[in-house]
Amino acid sequence: MKLSIIMLYYNGWNMVHARLAELAKYMPIENAELVLVDNGSEEDSSRQVNWWQEHFPRTLHYVHLEKNYGYAIGNNMGAEQATGEYFLFLNPDVIIHQPFVDEILPLLIRDHQIILGGKVIDWDGGWNTFIEGGQRYTIPYCEGWALAMSEWAWTDLGGFDERYAPYDCEDLDLSITALEKGFHLASLPHGLFTHLGGKSFEANLIRPDERRKITEINREKLLQKWQGRFSTISERLKV
């Protein structure tokens, strides 16, 4: 059984370099691979990538995209290159503290209908509460800075919905899809990772006001997609 770690990045090579050093230390040789996806970076990191391709002591697949397709499309393309039975989508702004594959794989092997996230937000986080029929429904979701699942689950869920390009709401949408299909959500084991929070967006040179507008647009897309089904999903969670 093999875990494919899919890491999508745009610019911010210093973060990627730090993650590669951590992965070289903490990834096992036998049952893990790295799929590194350059999402059309403006920075020229070709020399650094070449060095890592020669010196990375683990299996490394490098994918260079011609332009920045955003989070959903870029990760979907990375997943197409993965050969493992299990996937871990890991942002480059996530510090890796210790060996993690043997902590994650058994959880995924034991339950193919589990989605593991960096953190499960099961309270009103500001964009996961919806009004339907005069009722408020707070739908839990896995934060997308780290998401792990079986390849079977990934295929069954249809990957990330690309309507949310360039970013935001993909993790919430995938979680809602999972819950509607009878999957359940759980947090990754504590202590494996630390999310630095928003550093990937800084590498994308996104201003806070720009991101807020994109988030609002994508939340409206999510509402249009799921409106009328929140009550059913909420009832399913009570079973």
Keywords:
239 residues, alpha/beta, Spore Coat Polysaccharide Biosynthesis Protein SpsA, Chain A, seven-stranded mixed β-sheet, two-stranded antiparallel sheet, 13 strands
- CATH topology, anyone? Spore Coat Polysaccharide Biosynthesis Protein SpsA, Chain A
Query: Per DSSP, what share of the residues sits in E-state strands of 2 or more residues?
Result: 15-25%
Computed Rg: 18 Å
Write down the secondary-structure element order: EHEHEHEEHEEEEEEHHEEHHH
Flag low-confidence runs. Answer: none
Overall geometric form: globular
CATH class: Alpha Beta
Domain unit count = 1
* Category from helices, strands and their pairing: alpha/beta
The number of helical segments is: 9
Arithmetic mean pLDDT: 93
What is the helix content? 40-55%
Q: How many strand segments?
A: 13
CATH-scheme architecture: Alpha-Beta Complex
Strand order of the largest sheet: 3-2-1-4-11-6-12
Report how far apart the termini are.
Answer: 32 Å
Biggest sheet layout: 7 strands, mixed
